[in-house]
């Protein structure tokens, strides 16, 4: 069989070229290109991991900022409520002072009016006494024909008014 004999003659050269081709492929692709591709994949993985870490840190900072905002908001509300309470207290004190002043003014007006009423009442009573004394003196003069003195008529009217 001549084909088998021919295979034996070319067998060693085929193995040589096969090893040479695989060696070339191994060194060029395996040692040259694969590390570059692996490096690119590792760099991409590292970038993604870094971006995820940065996003987690940003979320944490955002949560802290929100917590700080809520705390400041609560403090501001508390301070505003304190200011409102203080303003209400000051307004109540001012109202009390105005009411006290108004009460004092009203009391003074009432006292003045009572004094005027008392003076008018005293004047009216004096006038009534004078008119009653004149009337009593005239009645005594008409009924009994005796002229009573002004002093006696006034004393009699005062006594009658005092006892009712």
- Give the CA-CA distance, first to last residue: 176 Å
Mean pLDDT: 88
User: Which oligomeric state applies?
Assistant: single chain
Integer-rounded radius of gyration: 63 Å
Q: Give the strand content.
A: under 5%
The ordered string of helix (H) and strand (E) elements is HH
Helical segment count:
2
Keywords:
single chain; 164 residues; mainly alpha; 2 helices; 96% helix
Architecture overview:
By secondary structure, the chain is mostly helical. Helices cover 96% and strands 0% of the residues. The protein has helices spanning 2-144, 150-163. The chain starts with a helix and ends with a helix. The model has no long low-confidence stretch (mean pLDDT 88).
Strand-helix topology:
Elements: H1 2-144, H2 150-163
TL;DR of this structure?
Helices cover 96% and strands 0% of the residues. The chain has helices at 2-144, 150-163. The longest helix has 143 residues, at 2-144.
